[in-house]
Amino acid sequence: MIAPTALRITGFNNTDGCVIAKENGDDPDFGFAFCHLNTYSVKKGDTLKRGDVIGTEGNKAGLGAVSTHLHFEIYKPDAPDVVYPYEGFNIDPEPILKQKGAWPK
User: Fold this and answer.
1) How many domains is the chain built from?
2) Structural domain for 52, as ranges
3) Contacts of residue 50, Cβ cutoff 8 Å, sequence gap at least 6
4) What is the pLDDT of residue 82?
5) Is residue 105 part of a domain?
6) What letter does residue 100 receive in the DSSP assignment?
7) CA–CA separation, 37 vs 40, rounded Å?
8) CA angle in degrees (0–180, nearest 5) for 12-14-52
9) This prediction's pTM
10) What is the CATH classification number for the domain harbouring 64?
11) pLDDT tens digits for 5-63?
């Protein structure tokens, strides 16, 4: 998994194999979760450029028969530094990804 934009790593949710990050220097400072990773290539406090490696996909969460995949979430700017899925801070990523040029055409 590579960083889609400049990020600051704010923490981890090891139960689900998640790296939690905030945008670094690009208002409005959305939060991101990259989950179901097998390995992490970052530590808390790291700042990343677009294209830097975050980690590798895998099955750290022990999902059994579920195929390897990335669980990606975007959080509201006022979300805490470490957010767990489904705490109510999630937002629809489609408009943001389209604006950033990261939505399939």
Assistant:
1) 1
2) 7-99
3) 2, 3, 4, 5, 6
4) 75
5) no
6) T
7) 7
8) 50
9) 0.81
10) 2.70.70.10
11) 899 999 998 878 888 888 877 667 888 899 888 889 999 999 999 899 999 988 765 66
